[in-house]
Design a protein that fits this description.
- By secondary structure, this protein is an alpha/beta fold.
- The protein contains eleven helices and twelve strands.
- It has one domain: TIM Barrel (Alpha-Beta Barrel), CATH 3.20.20.70.
- An eight-stranded parallel beta barrel has the order 1-4-5-6-7-10-11-12, surrounded by seven helices.
- β1 and β2 form a beta hairpin.
- α1 packs parallel to α3.
- The longest helix is centred in the N-terminal third of the chain and has 13 residues.
- It is globular, with a radius of gyration of 16 Å.
- The N and C termini lie close together (about 10 Å).
């Protein structure tokens, strides 16, 4: 199972939010590039970056910082996927032009699926479709709006478009270290051939083993690393 350490950016700092709430923030690092280098040294192959300011604003707001993180990642042989506030074709193209390996698209995929399909087909494997869900239904706009689109429907559509991966988050578990929704993630993986990346709630090595035992192919790990629950090396070897 591939592990993607998470770097969530707010006001230029590395933070984590509980349940996506802006008023439930913990700051972990003031130099995000240092975290990129650390994760590379510890054996990561990918790093997962979220522009939280962009997610709340509805447009990427930290592109200069993201460009520096792309450069830091590529200097260390890391691949990087970036999301947060990606709501237009121009947003996607700007991030791709910065060298981002995969752009994470969530709200736009739910609200303008034809456009995202077109972009996926023009950039095969370069988009990760984020499926943020509560009770099986897709949540958008920084998790503030619950749509009538099921997670399973969006997953099968995105795979058909040519997306490189899916990123599945049960938003009720994100940042709480109670374990990702392993069964729901495995159910989505059973529907598609592309990787489904589990996200949200991983707090222990046992949580990672549960995902691995269900043949889930990748997982994002955030707060548990920053809190010292385990090291990335321990997670990669579990």
């Amino acid at each position: 199972m591939d592990l993607l350490p998470a770097i969530d950016l707010m006001d230029g700092q590395v933070v984590r939010l509980a349940e996506g709430r802006r008023d439930a923030v913990t700051v972990y690092e003031q130099d995000p590039a240092r975290m990129v280098r650390r994760f590379a040294d510890e054996g990561a192959r990918w790093v997962h970056v979220v522009d939280l300011d962009g997610a709340f604003a509805g447009a990427p707001t930290q592109t200069s910082l993201i460009e520096s993180l792309v450069n830091a990642a590529h200097e260390r042989g890391l691949q990087i996927q970036v999301g947060g506030g990606v709501r237009t074709r121009a947003d996607i193209e700007r991030l791709l032009a910065l060298g981002v390996d995969r752009v994470v698209v969530g709200t736009l995929a739910a609200k303008e699926p034809e456009l995202v399909e077109e972009i996926c087909r023009a950039n095969p494997g370069r988009l990760t479709i984020a499926i943020d869900a509560r009770d099986g239904m897709v949540a958008v706009s920084g998790w503030t709006e619950i749509t009538q689109i099921s997670a399973s429907d969006l997953a099968t559509h995105a795979a058909a478009w040519g997306a490189g991966a899916l990123l599945f988050t049960d938003v009720s578990r994100d940042g709480l270290e109670v374990g990702a929704n392993a069964d729901a993630t495995a159910a989505l993986q059973s529907l598609v051939e592309i990787p489904v990346i589990a996200s949200g709630g991983v707090g222990t090595l046992a949580h990672l083993r549960e995902l691995r035992d269900l043949d889930i192919r990748a997982a994002v790990v955030g707060r548990a690393l920053y809190e010292g629950n385990f090291t990335l090396q321990e997670a990669l070897s579990c």
